[in-house]
Design a protein that fits this description.
The protein has 311 residues and is an all-alpha fold. It contains ten helices and two strands, in the order ββαααααααααα. The chain folds into two domains: 2-268, no CATH class; 279-311. Strand 1 and strand 2 (8-11) form a beta hairpin. The chain is elongated, with a radius of gyration of 28 Å.
Amino acid sequence: MTYSIAGHEIRLDKVINHDDEEMILRYKEIFKICLNDSNLKLLISVKKLVHLYSDIIMIYSTLLNKIPNYEDIRLMTLNVKKDSILVENKFNEIFSKSINEVDIFSKKMSWQTKKYESIIKPLTKQLLELTLTFFEKFFKTLTCIQLFFESFNNLKKLLIPFLVDQTHRVIDSLKKSIFFVNFPTITDNLDSITELTPTILKQLKKIEKITKGIGKETTILNEAFKRFEPTLQQYTQILLGKAILKRSISDEDCKIINRRDICYQAAEHVVSIPLTEEQKFQFFSKYIIIVILVLMLLVVTTIFRFFRVVF
């Protein structure tokens, strides 16, 4: 990791000369600034995913409300929907309702200079753990929804492709992020450093490792958002708009959070969703019947031959 300080580039994984040491001691706050900045970027990426998945659970919950006689899965989804609202509210309380990174950064510039161990780290950990709990519950519910929807021809078309696998990867990334955040650091004591001893250098490298690790998970979470936001926009345009509402939806209305209004409008146009058994189950039933008939034929044939031999 390269640090640019007053036109001077420094890398901790290379030999530290006298000039480098002087620059590090003079601008040692840069390690805290970079670490705090990485935490902020991570939480912004998590915030966007929380809004995205809140859209998804809202869509599934709305669809399940239109399917009669399946109260268990409907209530399960409704509970996750309620959890999503709580998590969203928590993020909005801290970062506002905006999902624009530039806007959030402009309002949170003071984050870079706040104490890490006593302020930034506990808040980051709290939000990550809250989000992880939500995503784990979401994943279990999503698995049930997928199994249920895949059992019927018309419901199968309502599934969002590859969502289960992607959600599993998001959960793994959140766990790794919490792992990095849990490491203790000397970040809040940087002011007291007067000499770059081997022990201090080791601690600075540790801060750098945490910063890079958090940055890597942020990239993974941002890629997940970039992959599924266009999918949800198409889902809203094609399924909710053209298939249900029978009209085109503006691109703006298909975007994150905005699409919830379209979901509610689509729900008003659907009285109930009838269930159509999937063809593979019909085929399987026919296959079982054929197997039974063949076995019965074999039994009859065996009995007939037995009687011919005996009599």
